[in-house]
Amino acid sequence: MLSARSLFQEILAHDESYRLFCSIAASGEAQGGWENGRIAALVPESLRALAPKVARHGADEDKHGRLFNALLRKRGLDPAPVPEAADYTVLLERRGIGLAHDKLRRDEPLTEQDIVTYLAHSRVTEQRAAEQMDLLKKHFGDHPEIGRAVLMIARDEENHLAYCHEELLRLVEQGHGPAIRRTLRASARVEIEVYRDVSLAVMAHMGRILGWSRPKSAVLAAGIHAVYVYERLAGRRRMVTLRLPERRDALGGPAASAAEFV
User: pTM of whole model > 0.85?
Assistant: First the structure.
């Protein structure tokens, strides 16, 4: 029977599929680390109090990239090239979600609207990341090879999501509510399309590596399309609502070291 657990066990057991999985994850996290680092350096003066939290977010993402690369090294594997169709962060940027990289490469302060865009985009993508890591934690939190890294990353993603909720609600109080709601809706609409496309691309690559049958691949593709339909009709609501998190000031301290977990 196909399940998330059985699929990931299959990917984990095969060096090439595991190599691709960790490489895709490492690349996306490293990209997120760079983006947050640049945003922290360019936060406008009116929101400078936010800069240390943005920097902490970037440090966490960079740490996650190092963790996935360390997991590869532990198995004696080198990173694999990330297929263009499976590059979630690049595809989101191409669709105009988040802040454009050419803007982040300039040494010009961002605007408050840019920060609204960044936080709303992060609210949506961190929802996805937190859910994915929660699934991995449920099935593999006690795994001898990857369990400690999974638990640490899952905790960080929960912190990132709480931070996005709290900071966006703070900006709502400052009068940015309409722009935040508009940006959340636009980001969620594009994200679920990109997530579908990336999921299909990753599953196609995994299928070739692991020799999946055509019926198995077809069932997995149908499942991905079904998730997309659900998210278009109702599921994206979880990505656009805001609530005060139980975990307050979640990014108020220093990031934990990756060396503690690998």
Answer: yes
